[in-house]
TrEMBL record:
GO terms for molecular function: ATP binding; nucleic acid binding. Residues 35-95 form the DEAD/DEAH-box helicase domain. It comes from Mycena metata. This is DEAD/DEAH-box helicase domain-containing protein. It comes from the Eukaryota.
């Protein structure tokens, strides 16, 4: 996974909250996650469906990508279904996912 060394014995256990925090911050290139991103991201990693209504610009994209990023970090192939109301949002999400 990029240049992140996950083989270190001190690296957080796979699927733990700390692990998700590290991989999401690294892959999404953010310094800190908002609490809802990590809380709901953990639900996604556990295989749960989530419903999130948050204002524009608050970081939903990180949450949307959490499952796919986690699957990739585990060496798995993940599927992410995103339903958005406009073509512009679809294009934004595609660009964001491709840049990962």
């Amino acid at each position: 996974m990029d240049d992140l060394d996950t083989s270190d014995a001190l690296f957080p256990a796979v699927n733990s909250r700390e692990w998700l925090d590290v991989i999401l911050r690294h892959r999404c290139k953010v310094t800190k996650l908002r609490p809802f991103q990590l809380d709901l991201g953990m639900e996604v990693v556990r295989g749960k469906d989530v419903w999130c209504v948050i204002a524009t610009g608050m970081g939903k994209t990180v949450l949307l990508q959490a499952g796919a990023i986690a699957a990739d970090a585990r060496g798995e192939r993940g599927i992410c279904l995103i339903i958005v109301p406009t073509k512009v949002l679809v294009e934004q999400q595609v660009c964001s996912m491709v840049s990962l």
